Amino acid sequence: MAIASRAGQYVQQVEGYRAFIPKPLPPNPAVEMDQEMWNLLSKADRALGRLDGSTDALPNPNLFVFMYVRKEAVLSSQIEGTQASLIDVLEFESQTLDPDNPQDVAEVVNYIAAVNYGLKRLQSLPISLRLIREIHEKLMQGVRGAERSPGEFRRTQNWIGASGCGLQDASYVPPLIKIGLAHAQFETIHPFLDGNGRVGRLLITFLLCEQQILQRPLLYISYYFKKYRTRYYDLLQGVRDAGDWESWLKFFLRGIAETANEAARTARQIVQLKEEHRILLLDQMGRKSGNAIALLETLYFKPIFTVEHAMEVTGLSYPNANKLVKDLCDVGLLEEITGQKRNRAFCYAPYLAVFKDG
């Protein structure tokens, strides 16, 4: 039901450019909920339910959240042109970062901080302009674009969009449809001088949690948006130029289902990997298996580490901790990643491989 002015209109400005003025949500005429849309919505809802169930089965759901937040931070930042990888971020956090690694790792670390901050604030503050500004300030602190008014909406243009939004007062709109509409509208308004893409993608996660569609922040759609980046941008532009909300929403719902199904598979992989590795250590390491399992348990939150970390966890001397790490390398669970005789760092390679995409 594409109607050119349905999402807003371009208005000539005295400065000589045309500015797009978005219309308030929900769209008018309303989103056409044809059979394909209902089918996609149903698949997305079921996939989110399976994801919640899969993570409930984890012995410690927080370890899954820990890695998924970092993976999402990397992928969302890469869409904006950063080069930092998941390994770079984990090395930075474990203080083993190679000085030659990308400097924009700080942007990814800020994204992680913004996720954690926003989720904590949601306990006392609903999704609001205030919360969005606070998240943006965390995201931009001390990184590229930090001089461009972090935490403040742009004031250089008076055409950034309608001030009102009647989505909450509209006749029933399915929650996932609301979230898809909100993301597209946010990216259209582009309220900040920098960081709009990352904040807009964070908004999806926060809305899913606020509306209790997910118990935990485990639906990260940046991999899907990165995988189909051109299509993503084209469909958002199609909303503005042609009022084609339906094509965008169908793309969005496919992404929700694909991403949720992949996350649920990853959760099941982790459960299986933990059990397989526990059995392997009991079989291969005999009386050393207690310390080995204790160390391995910490690596789900610290998959890149040094021998000093092994000493802290096990209480072993440096030579014995070093021998324990070597034994874990020999059975294929750890890899030395620095190639140095001193200040060596190791990674829990099979676990990192689970999150290798992107």
TrEMBL record:
Binding site for ATP: E80, H190, D194, G195, N196, G197, R198, V199, G200, R201, Y232, Y233
PROSITE patterns referenced in this protein's UniProt entry, alphabetically: FIDO (PS51459)
Record keywords: ATP-binding, Nucleotide-binding, Plasmid
Annotated active site: H190
Domain Fido: 127-254
Pfam families: Fic, Fic_N
Family annotation (InterPro entries): Fic/DOC_N (IPR025758), Fido (IPR003812), Fido-like_dom_sf (IPR036597), Fido_containing (IPR040198), SoFic-like (IPR026287)
GO molecular function: ATP binding
Protein name, entry field: Sll6098 protein
